[in-house]
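Long-time lurker. I teach an intro course on protein structure, and each term I like to show students one example going from raw sequence to a predicted 3D structure in C-alpha cell notation. This year I'd like something fresh instead of my usual example. Would anyone be willing to generate the C-alpha cells for the chain below so I can use it in lecture? Attribution to the forum is fine with me.
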Amino acid sequence: MISPFLVLAIGTCLTNSFVPEKERDPSYWRQQAQETLKNALKLQKLNTNVAKNVIMFLGDGMGVSTVTAARILKGQLHHNTGEETRLEMDKFPFVALSKTYNTNAQVPDSAGTATAYLCGVKANEGTVGVSAATERTRCNTTQGNEVTSILRWAKDAGKSVGIVTTTRVNHATPSAAYAHSADRDWYSDNEMPPEALSQGCKDIAYQLMHNIKDIDVIMGGGRKYMYPKNRTDVEYELDEKARGTRLDGLDLISIWKSFKPRHKHSHYVWNRTELLALDPSRVDYLLGLFEPGDMQYELNRNNLTDPSLSEMVEVALRILTKNPKGFFLLVEGGRIDHGHHEGKAKQALHEAVEMDQAIGKAGAMTSQKDTLTVVTADHSHVFTFGGYTPRGNSIFGLAPMVSDTDKKPFTAILYGNGPGYKVVDGERENVSMVDYAHNNYQAQSAVPLRHETHGGEDVAVFAKGPMAHLLHGVHEQNYIPHVMAYASCIGANLDHCAWASSGSTPSPGALLLPLAVLSLRTLF
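-- Reply from a regular --
Happy to contribute to a lecture. Here you go:
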C-alpha cells in the first residue's frame, strides 16, 4: 500500500508534469490507434520470399527495460519528452520473446546464449560453439561436440559473411560464430591453462583466423590477442596492458593476410581514418581491429581512431552486398552489457541508442523484400527504472519524491545488485550530493557486488523481412538461427526450397508451401 505522503507527492508532481497539447484531445489517440490498426492489417499478407540476406543485431544485455530506457533517451537526445519516441527496432512488424537460460544455468551468460542463437543448440554457461556435452574449462570434452553456426552455413552456401562488434572480436558473442571452445575466456593461448594446451585445444583468436579462413569482414577490438607476447601496440605504445599476449609467437594479422588469394583485395586497418578512406567497391576482405581490447564506449570514443558502430556497419554492408548470392552479417552492440556490469547506466543506454542508429543505417541500405533483419539480446540485466517519474523526466534524473523510509532522494534508474551500493555514515548515500548525471555515475543498487549481474527474464526478438512472421511467440533461444536459415535456404533444412533440387540460385517467392503448415527439421 502506498503511503499518503507518497500519494500527495506523486499527485502534485504528475499534475505539474508536461502533457503535449495534442495529447489532450481524445481524437489524437483514436487516430493513432486506427493508423496502427491499418498497418497491422497489412501484415496479413506475409512476406514468404527467400531471404537473400540476413542481418542479426545482438544487443548484449539489452533486456526489455534497457530497450524502453534507450527509447526515452533517444527521444530526449532529440529534445523530446522521450516516451513517445520510436526506436528503429520498434518499427519492426514482428516481435517475439526468447527464453535465455543455459543448459546448466537459470540466469545465463553470453557464451552459452551465443551458441544458442547462432548455432541452434543450447549449451552450458561459459562455452562457445559446442554442445552441452562439453563442460566449461575441460578441453578434453570438446572434440566431437562441436556445433557449427549460421555464419558457417551461409559461407558454405556461397554467401559473403561478416562480424562487426564493439567488443573484442574474440569475445563471447562473435566467437560462437566461428570457434569451438570449452571456455569463453581463452582469448589467446596466454589465457589458457597448460592442461588445455597440452590436450590440443586452440585459443579463440587462433580459431578466428583458421576455422573459417574466408570470413569477408571482421571488425571490432582485440588487437593484442593477435600479436606475440609484449609486442608494442601501434596506438598505445607506452601502455603495457595493450601489448601482445600470444605465447606461441604467432602474428595472426600476418597469417590472416597470407590466407587471402593474391588476386583479391585484402585490407587490415586499425583506425577510423584508414577505415573510412577505403573504397568498399575495391575491398574483398577486411579486418579492422581498432583497440587492443574492447572498443571504447560511444560516449568516450575518439573520433579520429575509433569508428562508431554505425560507421562499421555501413562499410561492412557496402562490401558484403557485392555478392549476388547475398550475405549474413552479425552485428553486436556488445558494450551495453559492460555498462550495466559496471553500474554505469548512462554508458549502457548510449550504447543501445548507437546500436539502434546502426539498425536504421542497415535498414536504409537494404530492402525488406530480400533481407531478413533480426534484433535481439542474449540476456537481460538487473536494471530497472521507476519511482513514479513524470512525463519527460530525464531518464537519468531523480524520482519526484524522497524515500518515505530514509527521507533521501533516489534516481529513477536503479540496479538489483552491483557496484553502486554505497553507505555513508551508516546510511544510504544521498544522491543529491553527487553528480548522478555524470557519464560514469554508478546507479545505486540493493546488494553490493563488484560487478552487477545478468537478469534471467525473457528478452525481446524483433524481426522484419522474409519469414519474419516465424518469430511470433515465446521461443527457446536456439530457435532463432533455425528461422534465419530456413528463411534464407541455407543449412540442412532445404526441403521447402524449390530451387534446392536443381542447384540453381533461389529467387523471390521460391518457398514452396505455406509456412504455417511446414515444420522445422533440425539443422544437425
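Some talking points for your students: Residues 4-9, 512-524 have pLDDT under 50 and may be disordered. The longest strand covers residues 160-168.
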